[in-house]
Design a protein that fits this description.
Helix content is about 55%, strand content about 5%. With about 375 residues, the protein is α+β, with helices and mostly antiparallel strands. It holds the Pfam family Peptidase_M78.
Length: about 375
Amino acid sequence: MKIPSTALHHILNARGLDIATLADRSNVSARKIRSAMDKGGDLEEEDIISIADELAVPIEALFTSENLPLFPAVDFRSATPKVTKFQKGTLEAISFVERLSSTFSDLKLDYRLDRSLAAVKTNYTEAQAIELAREWRKKWGISDDDQLDFQDANKLYVSLRGFIESLGIIVMHRSFETDEAAGLYAHISDGPHIVVINTTKSSKARKLFTLAHEFCHVLLREEGASNPSILTNRVERFCNKFAAYLLAPTRVIKAALKRFRYTVSADDDFIRLFAKKLGISQEALVLRLVEEGMLTPADYNRWRSKFNGVTPPGDTGDGGGGRGDPLQTKRTAYGSALLHLLGEARRTGQLDEIDIFRLCGLKPKYQNQLFGAI
């Protein structure tokens, strides 16, 4: 089989890959790929399947005469954010978003953003990030006492996610099977605004910070994939500052110290326990304490050096184990906003149960229960 060069070049550009990288990942030689594109050479069926798999596109995308509405995901880990190479798991998450966006674009459903979500114009200063966080914490409606009563990242996460979804944003969970990106934000064509949180090696506290960080990307309309632990450009620094002050403003930190009668120190036990009380990750807490002048940059460096460049224990998973409620697991993975749209599409006859299963993997046996609960 021959591959039209125009189609493959379009996909490679959107995926941030070149033929050499594709050849390495697909185990199909660059010579064979180029020959199939430029000289009329043939590829075996297994070669085609492998190439499409590594590009995270359906096989027919390689042969279409029209460019598909792919999402050229900007890599915000770069000093100059641009489309770049992501690993296969991240590309598959992007492909999933593309599939949802394309489907919803063709349906008559209301997924408009709340009017309050106009794009924010900023000079990316710290003061503007802090003020934006103050404004949106007020709109969120979470009180300081509520947060300190929670003493639980999961409860705080559920509250923030529910608020964000109420604004018309789809928030989903998906394992990227790599921790290169903690999350992504995309708005493709006239589809819905979608945030995907990577569940790989991530505690609820880290998911919470990522969610707040990606919400700032929505406010800025800065689409792409990011990792809040890698700050090399002004967009990521701004989003991190926003997330830190949205989740742990100064007054909450001071109120928590008073309520729980803690004295600030760089001690591991204090950091672990106080982070849990606030419902945020240890890394976020220590950085906020440095910003508040309660710890020094040297304290942060000494604390961070204990983990040899890896995520501190307690920030990599949510603990627990065993088999949970499958319905609750699916509610968490898909989110209320997406389940509402899928349920509405099925009720209005725009999608049937098999369409939905093919679209997102939600089995028919769960659909009645999930859609009926919305």
